[in-house]
Design goal:
This protein has 155 residues and is mainly alpha-helical. The chain has 8 helices and no strands. The longest helix is centred in the middle third of the chain and has 24 residues, at 85-108. Bound molecules: zinc ion (ZN). The site of zinc ion has 6 residues, from helix 2, helix 5 and helix 6.
Amino acid sequence: MFITTHAALGAIVAEWVPDQPLLAFGLGLLSHFLSDIIPHGDSQLYKGYVAGSKVKRAIAYVTIDGVISLVFVLFLFNTRLIENRAAISMGILGGVLPDLLVGLYEVTKTKWLIPLHRVHFFFHNMVTHRHGDLSFPSGFAMQMVFLSALLSRLA
Ligand SMILES: [Zn+2]
């Protein structure tokens, strides 16, 4: 999913435990793996990245997504959520960390990241391996709807 979507979800689950940043971090992590189960249209892009045919596109996609997430977090911290800053920050961190580590693994192939990479794609591919993924445009549209619903809860 978009990093932005994971960040928004991380913020939402953190709101459940406003006084417990560590728990918010754990819930953020969990929200990442569980939401990745929903087919969201990025399987072909990832395969293209691994195969070397869509490297530039994948990098552009992640860069744009990363900057949008940053703007999103700035937006959040100008809303009422400023009151539970520690928990919200940790929830967002937990929400986005798996993709950061997967990205780090893709670039470095560091051995200690292999288990996390496997766990991540176990969830990510749970449904898409059996039933196929959405097309990129459908996945994009679905996530925009999902993200607006999340935003309307946060704003
Ligand atoms: Zn992910």
